[in-house]
Amino acid sequence: MASQDREIQMQSPVLVLDALYCEEEDLGEYGCEEGSDSVMGPSIFSENLFDCEDDELVRLFSKEKEAFLGQTGLMADGSLMVARREAVDWMFRVVTHYGFTVVTSVLAVNYFDRFVSSFRFQRDKPWMSQLAAVACLSLAAKVEETQLPLLLDLQVEESKYVFEARAIQRMELLVLSTLEWKMNPVTPLSIVDHVLRRLRLKTHLQLEFLRRCERLLLSVITDSRFVCYLPSVLASAIMLHVIKEVGPYNALDCQNELLDVLKMSRDKVDDCYKLIVNYLATTTSANTRPYPTAQMVSLRRISAAIA
């Protein structure tokens, strides 16, 4: 990777994600111009749109609560919030380097958040969060990807520490046991996918709507404030924002119809929606962080810490 490209990627986690959407026309923020309806049309919904049974939606809502920990502890620990941001930024750079899917990215962050919410980190071992990030990304790639790099090659992007393969494997086992082997959780993408499969739209419109939701999701999950929202709430807020940004003539009607099919009140989604708006308004593209030379952490130190 050229040094100039690396410098650009390190400036913003959002810019890193652009590599996932190559060969696409620049249509403005989230791929559309303000007030334009040329892509999605005056309405993204069709008449009698949601006429199938709601069993799957009920199952998704039930399953998301089983895995959701109400991970507010991340927001109460300032040092952990910083470690999380660095870990997520690093995972996204690796995802971009290897061309992993968006699902892999979301799963890796999900595993990391659930793990750090359950596992008590030791403050005198600052390398612990980075090792957890490597393990969570490795596990997510094993779930979703068809071609995987070696564990040492997975650490292709610069970080403070470098870990041996045996250390990563031990952490993988710890993550698996801590998460009780529940590696297929409901994520916001699960809810978005459910809605799209119930949309009677042409294929290219479904893909465009999904692309915009994915990009916004990947941007906001770098912020630990969104961890406390259920996947269905975050997905709903993201879809509401995408609908508004697309600019159909009846955006409000489309938003209300979406909330109706999801059986979700606007009040329940409003806080998350406002946070998304605030996040996008305050996030800057230049966010450079120094990444010092990596330190090799001995397997003995790691074994003693995670045993």
UniProtKB/TrEMBL annotation:
The Cyclin C-terminal domain, residue ranges: 186-303
Membrane spanning stretches: 90-112
Key words of the record: Cell cycle, Cell division, Cyclin, Membrane, Transmembrane, Transmembrane helix
GO biological process, one term: seed development
Annotated ranges, domain Cyclin-like: 89-177
SMART domains, alphabetized: CYCLIN (SM00385), Cyclin_C (SM01332)
One Pfam family in the UniProt entry: Cyclin_C
Keyword check for DNA-binding: no
Similarity comment: family membership: Belongs to the cyclin family. Cyclin D subfamily.
Protein name: Similar to CYCLIN D33
Organism of provenance: Actinidia rufa
Lineage, uppermost ranks: Eukaryota, Viridiplantae, Streptophyta, Embryophyta, Tracheophyta
